[in-house]
Amino acid sequence: MKVRGKAQFDPVIHSPHRLRICAALDSVDEAEFELLREVTGVSESVLSKQVKTLEEAGYVTTTKATRASRVRTWASITNRGKAAYQGHVMALQEIVSGL
Known about the structure:
By secondary structure, this protein is α+β, with helices and mostly antiparallel strands.
């Protein structure tokens, strides 16, 4: 399903780490935390804090499961999060294009 947001700057998403998380999640159904750590280049604790902020805004959901005797966490962007992310990107494009 394609979600379209309106151009609107979003201070929750604007943080560089949260922007990278949303960008990574925008094109996939879900991503494991390890991939998000690589994308953002931050520690697990920093990533957890950033994802929690996105969760509290209703932009991301997380699920946990045990695989190979380890608890692993996956994150997914919600429809609300997709719309907010896409709207934020459109707002940034308007800013840099001088509109």
